[in-house]
Specification:
Elements: H1 6-15, E1 43-49, H2 53-56, H3 60-70, E2 75-81, H4 85-94, E3 112-116, H5 123-132, E4 148-152, E5 168-170, H6 178-187, H7 193-200, E6 206-207, E7 230-231, E8 257-260, E9 262-263, H8 273-277, E10 282-283, H9 286-300, E11 304-308, H10 318-332, E12 335-337, H11 348-353, E13 361-367, H12 371-376, H13 383-395, E14 400-407, H14 414-435, E15 440-447, H15 464-478, E16 484-486, H16 490-501, H17 506-515, H18 529-538, H19 543-548, E17 562-563, H20 568-580, H21 596-599, H22 604-608
Parallel strand pairs: 1-2, 1-3, 3-4, 4-5, 7-17, 8-11, 11-12, 13-14, 14-15, 15-16
Antiparallel strand pairs: 5-6, 9-10
Helix pairs in contact: 5-17, 9-10, 13-14, 14-15, 17-18
């Protein structure tokens, strides 16, 4: 089947694509790509990632859904990414709509468009992609022939800021619900568009916004207008990784084979949204991991492997996994990375298992500078343990260490900030002593954004003057070390906090900002603080009330209708324990009754080893 506009798309690719940067972002045809016959397939899904190909291509959520949908005989999935500024300009100039990579078909012709939105600064890109597709931005203005728009990802655990633009939200893991969504829509193909959307709302884990409910901040829980509770969908067992990984046309941000070896985290860091919403821990077995590596290398030719999780060294079989990976190195000539390691579980035995790994970058995330603050955030790592680990790392030959810190925690003092300087100084001294001029230290400073569904959801965002004063302490203290230090833009921190903590009113702010030119807000080239500040003023939004006023611990929050499985009462206890500097043991040291087992009807200990 050839659509009228398809020839215009082919003409644009043939004649004009050479005029823009990185044409490979838009041509598709990657090795292992799946391209089905459109006319012989009854249901068509566009998987959309609202950032450029370079960023979105490695996304494991998109890859998993692509495999699942294309394994069906009655459905197909094709991909679309946000066009960069030059490509957008070309599309608008030529009046060509946004199209899929596989078949070059306008995405407005698909039955379903599924956006994966991992972080909030992609919101305006979602609107821009809809506009480039000639799809009405607001759900209520869409017509019967417009595709149904769904969205999932970590940011949708507070769906309300985007409620006006998305027909239905997936709360939880998309792989566990995508077949239910497709089955629902295929079986109701003769119904009206609105009836189809309402039918989606009957599927567990799907939230369909309506005008009868409102998720505004309110001090009176009795006046609650929250929607009915929506409980997240999740896989009780992860037993196989993604098959038939695609090989990118151009260099992408994570240009390697990514194997998710574990989902969820047992640690309970109080600032970490992913660690709370992704519970319980589920592990991919040693045999599945090794088989996946062999198969992926053979099918892609890529020799760099990344073993991914929120806390890779916490995997119960990590030593055996690394031993087997090392044995594979000679046969497959592979190199591997473990991007998320915790000092508490990264011992000398684990280092020895990584001896054959090519030495280079090693990342450590102490998060806070003092032991007292690390206890308050529930990441109680002693100062001396950090130094001893760094010494072992350097002795084993890693010469480039990256440290992640966060500032702006509740109760934080200047002494905590000085602790960051002290720790960096000691680590730099150790590295220079062992590795001499080959040692490099890179420090990244972030600012706490109190996210929904974490113990810090009741905390306030640190004010700009406070954060900048702490930046200055760090700059003065770290300057003599002559190390590379990154500091974030406070205006971007403020925006992300507003979008992630917002209620329904924020959808108007997002729309106004997009209308006035906001897009690619996570990029230096795209972000404009002035556009957002003007939009906030135009819509009469008080940053003070959303970000800086203290909240009563019993106050209704706009995301309270989303059930992640973790009890709100547990989060309250954790918030209060943080104030007292008390820690909570990890899930596999001692169950702290967070609510997961009761709310999600799962045995966490069995879930970890895949025994369910």
């Amino acid at each position: 089947m050839i659509f009228k506009t398809q020839q215009e798309i082919f003409d644009l690719i043939d004649r004009d694509l050479i005029t823009i940067q990185k044409p490979g972002r838009y041509i598709g045809g990657e090795f292992n790509q799946v391209k089905k016959d459109w006319s012989l397939t009854s249901f068509h899904v566009a998987l959309a990632f609202p950032d450029i190909y370079d960023i979105g291509f490695p996304n494991l959520g998109i890859a998993a859904l692509y495999n699942i949908i294309n394994s069906r005989s009655d459905a197909l999935a094709e991909r679309v990414f946000a066009p960069w500024f030059d490509m957008e300009s070309l599309l608008r100039k030529k009046k060509v709509p946004l199209f899929s990579l596989e078949s070059k078909i306008p995405i407005s012709h698909f039955d379903l468009i599924g956006f994966s939105i991992p972080y909030e600064t992609l919101y305006t890109n979602v609107l821009n992609m809809l506009d480039l597709s000639k799809i009405p931005l607001h759900s209520e203005t869409r017509q019967s022939d417009d595709p149904i728009i769904i969205a999932g990802g970590h940011s949708t655990f507070n769906p309300e800021p985007m409620h006006a633009f998305i027909d239905a939200f997936v709360i939880g893991e998309g792989e566990s619900v995508i077949n239910d969504i497709i089955d629902c829509l295929i079986s109701r193909k003769e119904l009206s568009r609105n009836e189809k959307v309402q039918a989606l709302g009957e599927i567990p884990g799907i939230y369909v916004p309506d005008s009868e409910h409102s998720t505004l901040y309110t001090d009176d829980p009795k006046n609650s207008l929250l929607p009915p509770m929506v409980t997240k969908r999740f896989h009780k067992k992860i037993d196989s990784p993604i098959k038939n990984l695609l090989v990118p046309n151009i260099s992408v941000v994570h240009d390697r084979i990514a194997i998710e070896i574990m989902r969820g985290c047992s640690r309970g860091c109080r600032f970490c949204q992913a660690g709370m919403i992704m519970r319980p821990v589920r592990e991919l077995s040693h045999d599945n991991i090794i088989n996946a590596i062999k198969e992926s290398v053979e099918k892609t030719g890529i020799s760099e492997i990344s073993l991914l999780s929120l806390s890779t060294s916490d995997h119960s079989q990590i030593s055996e996994i690394l031993h087997s990976v090392n044995q594979l190195s000679d046969d497959y000539q592979i190199d591997f990375s473990l991007p998320s390691l915790r000092i508490e579980t990264f011992d000398e035995n684990l280092m020895n298992s990584m001896q054959s790994k090519r030495k280079g970058n090693f990342t450590i995330a102490p998060e806070a500078g003092s032991e007292a603050r690390r206890s308050a955030i529930n990441k109680p790592i002693p100062f001396q343990d950090i130094l001893e680990t760094v010494e072992q790392i350097c002795l084993k030959g890693w010469n480039n260490i990256k440290l992640y810190f966060m500032i702006g925690f509740p109760g934080e003092t200047d002494a905590d900030i000085e602790g960051i300087i002290d720790l960096c100084r000691e680590i730099n001294t150790i590295g220079k002593k062992i590795l001499k001029g080959r040692f490099k230290l890179h420090v990244s400073i972030n600012t706490l954004i109190p996210k929904a569904h974490t113990p810090y959801q009741w905390a306030t965002l640190a004010r700009k003057e406070t954060v900048e004063a702490k930046y200055q302490i760090l700059k003065d203290g770290l300057k003599p070390l002559k190390i590379k230090v990154n500091y974030p833009d406070y205006n971007l921190i403020q925006l992300e906090a507003l979008l992630s903590r917002g209620d329904r009113k924020i959808s108007d702010v997002i729309f106004t900002a997009w209308k006035n030119g906001a897009k690619f807000d996570a990029w230096r080239e795209g972000f404009s603080a002035d556009i957002w500040q003007n939009s906030i003023r135009e819509n009469k939004i008080s940053l003070e009330s959303y970000l800086y006023e203290k909240r009563d611990i019993n106050q209704q929050l706009p995301w309270d209708f989303v059930n992640t499985g973790v009890d709100k009462s547990f989060l309250k206890k954790e918030f209060l324990k943080s104030r007292e500097g008390k820690t909570t043991p990890g899930c596999f040291q001692k169950c702290s009754a967070c609510g997961i087992m009761q709310n999600l009807q799962i045995d966490c200990s069995k879930a970890r080893i895949g025994d369910i």
